[in-house]
Write the C-alpha cells for this entry.
Amino acid sequence: MGRLFIESLNGPKIFKCKCCKVDSASHDDIISKDFQGRYGRAYLFKNVILFLPLPPSLQCVDFWVNISLGPNEDRHLMSGLHTVNDIYCSSCQQILGWRYEKAYEESEKYKEGLFILEKERMLKEGW
Amino acid sequence: MEALKTLRTEIVPLCINSSKVCELSSCIVSPSPSALVGCHSQGAVRAKSRSKLLEELQKLLPPTVMIPERRLEHLVEQALDLQRDACMFHNSLEGEMSLYTDHQCGKDKIPSRTLQVNVNGGVSLKHKLSGHQKPVSHVSWSPDDCQLLTCGVEEAVRCWDVSSGECLRIYEKAGVGLVSCGWSPDGKLVFAGINDRSICMWDLDGKELECWKGQRTLQISDLEIASNGNQIISICKDTAILLFDREAKAEKFIEEDHTITSFSLSRDCRFLLVNLLNQEIHLWNIEGEAKFIAKYKGHKRERFIIRSCFGGFEEAFIASGSEDSQVYIWHKSSGELIEVLPGHSGSVNCVSWNPANPHMLASASDDRTIRIWGLNKINMKRKGTHPNGTHYCNGGT
C-alpha cells in the first residue's frame, strides 16, 4: 500500500482504531456515551479527527484524514429514520461507526453532522 | 562651430585628401590629445569613438526618431519566444522554429506510452538495498549521483554506494527516530528530519554537526536543501512550509489554506510544488518572498501521500500520481491538464521525470509495479514489436 497521509491528535485522551492504531477522535469531543451501535455500546462525538488547526470556516467535510466517509444511506435506527454515512479507518478500512447526515424527526435533528464511534472498534490511549 | 562650418562647406567639396578630412572631423568630435598622438591606432580609435557617439545619441533620442539598433531582430526573437512559451507541448530542443507559421508542437513529444513495466525492458534492476527494518519513506540522490540516502520511517538514514550497492554509513540518533533525509548541494552534508520535530545535520563521516530544535518538521514531511546548502525546506505545521536559512538564521514560510501532504523542489531551486489534502497542487516561487503562482487540479487524492514533480524540457511540465491509477501531466505556465495516462491498476503514489531525458517518466503504484513512460511513436511506418508493457512482475521495492 502507498504511504497513508495520517495525522495525530494532541491528546491527552485519544481514541484510536483498534486494528491499526491510527488516531480517530479525541475524548474531549464526546457528547454522549449512551448510544448503541452495531456491536454494542457506542459514543456520540461532535467531531472526529479532521484537519484541526483550521478555523471552522475553512474546515470542510469533503476532505478527511485518517477516516474515510462512505456514501449516503437511509437507515432505520432505533431513534427513527436517518440518512447516515458509514465511516471507515482510512488505513485498514474497518468500519468504525457512522456519521449522521440528516435526521427526519425534529427531536433527532441535533445529531446532524455528529459522529458515532463503536466502543468495540476503539482503543483508548492516555487513560 | 566655425571650424565645423569651414570643414563642411569649404574643405569637403574640394574632394582632396579625404583621410585628412576624416581626421579633422574626428578631432572636432572628440578633441582629446591622445587621439592625435598615436597615429597607427588612430583608425581604431576613430571608429570606436564614432560608434560610441552613435550609441550615446541613440540612448538620448526617442525610438520614434532613431530606431534602436537591431530592433527588428529583437522583435522577431521576441515573437518566437512568445510562441514557444505558448506552446503547451513544447518538450524538445530540436524543434526548429520556423518564421513561416506559428510554432505549435503536437503532443507527440510528451511521454504517453508505457515502455516498460518493472524489469522487462531497457531499464533494469541494479541493486536491492536491504538493511532497513522499517518502510523506506524518502530517498535522496547525492549531487554527483554516486550515493543514495534512504530513510526508514522513525528509524535511521542509510547512505549507499550506487555502484556497489553497499551500505556506507548509518545515520541515527539515540532515543529518536529519523523521518526524512536530504543531501546538501555540495554533497558534503547530510540532513535528516527527526520525529521530535527537530532537524539534524551530519558530515559524511557520521559526525553530528548541528541540530535545530523546535517545530521545524513534522512526522510526515519531506525535506529539501536548496540554494547553496543554506536553505532547509520542510513542512513545519499542517498548513505551512518552513524555509529556514541556517546561516542567516532567517525563517520564511509558505502558508496554505489546506493541509499540506508533500512537496517537491525544482532543479533550479526557484520553485516549490506543494501537494494539498484538498486534491490541489500549488506552485510557489520561493526566491525572495514566497509567491503563489499557479494551481493544478484534476487528479485524485483521498487517503495517500501522492507525489508530484517538475519535468520535461526546461521543467515546463508538472507530473503527478493519482489515486485513480493514472499519471497526470500539466503544462506548468498555463496550468492546462495535457495528458492523463492510464495503465496502472492501483493508486499511483509517485512519479519521477528523467532529468536527463525529457521524454521519459517513471511512475510507481500500489499495483506493485514501476512503469517507464516514453514517446508514443504511432507514426512509425514499421509494424512495431514494441513490448506492450502489460507483463506484470510482482516484486517488492
Observations:
- The first strand of chain A starts at residue 14 and ends at 17.
- Chain A has one domain: 14-125.
- Strands of chain A lie at 14-17, 23-26, 30-37, 40-45, 67-77, 80-89, 95-103, 115-118, 122-125.
